Amino acid sequence: MVAAYLLHRDHEITVFEAADYVGGHTNTIEVQMEGRTYAIDTGFIVFNDWTYPNFVTLLNKLGVKSQLSDMSFSVKCERTGLEYNGTSLNRLFAQRRNLFRPSFYRMIRDILRFNRKSIELLRTPELGPSLGSYLERGGYTKEFIDHYIVPMGAAIWSASHATIWEFPARYLVQFFKNHGMLSVDERPTWRVVTGGSQRYVENLVAPFRERILLNSAVESVSRFPHFVELRARLGDRDYRALRFDHVIIAAHSNQALAMLADPSPTGKRYPQCDSLSGERGCLTHRLFLAAKTEVGLGGLELSFAAKSASSVRGYVPYESATRIDSSTRILCDAQSYGGDQSEEDLKTHYLSSSHLFAGSSRRSATTRRNQRG
User: Is the entire prediction scored with pTM above 0.70?
Assistant: First the structure.
C-alpha cells in the first residue's frame, strides 16, 4: 500500500487484492459494549518509536493520530497453576507463592542469562541453530523453556510450541533485540493508532481507492523481455492475462514464489531477490548499490538501486500507457533501514525479508498485493 501511495501520483497503477477488503492483517473490528464503541485490532496492533520510524513519519504525513499504549507479557499455566506478569516486580510476584518457589527463581535467572548471552548469535553471519537446539546446548531450565521463551515466541508469531522450538534462534534474538526485549528496563515506547489501525489504511488508500481491485486473486506472474504478464481473477470473472511494465508483490516470500511462473535459480532459494521488471535475475548485487532518497513523504526514506533503462514498449490493454522517467528504482521496505547500515547488514536484511521488490520505470507501473500478509 505504501508503494502504491508513493507511485500513484506519477504512475498508472492497479492494486490486486485477493481478499474482500484492503489492509491485510491491518484489520479493525468495532465492538459495542455498555453503550460504548470499542475499536479492536485483530492483527496489527501496536508500534514503537524504535523500530517504526518511517511508519511514524507516514502517520504524520497522513494526519493520523496515535496514542500511548503499553505492551506486557503474562503467563498462566493451567497445568501447574503458575501465573505472572513481567511488567514490574509486584506483578512478577503477583502470585505471592512464587516468592517461595526455587523453580521460579531459576526461570528468572535464565531469562537474565538468555538476555545477556543470546546476543552472541548475531555476531556471526551463519543462520545458526534452531531455538530448541540452542536452549538444549545452553542447558536452560525447563521452567524457562515452558513458562517464558517458548510461550513468548508462540504469542509473538501466533505459532505452536513445536514451531517455535524449530524456529531459527538467530531470528528470534534479532527480533527481541530490535524491540528492546533483551533488556529489563530499557524498552521502547509503544503506541496504538487512535480509533484502530484501519484508520491509517483508510487515509493511505484514499487517493487511489478506485485503482484497487478487491476479490482479485493473482494466479501467476510471468516475465518477458519488455513487460510482465499476470493472470488474475477480477471479481467473479474468469482469470485473464494482463500486461504491465512492472509488478510489486506485497506477500510472504513463499506466496510470492508460488506465483512466479519463471523464478530464477537464486529466486527459488531467496524469493525476495527476484526482479519483476521484465527481466530475469537476482537484485542482490544492485541492492548493494543502495543510496538514499526521499520519495514524496517529506522525510520517509526509501532505499533504491538505480540502473539505466532502455526504451520499454510494454502496454496495458485497458489503459493508455504514460511516458515517465527513464530510470528504475527498486523500492525497499518502508519500515526498514535508515541509512547507516553496512553492506553486510543490507545483505542480511534483503535475504531474510518476506517481501519481493521490483521497480517502476518508463510507462505505467503496477502495484499488486495478493495475500493478506
Answer: no
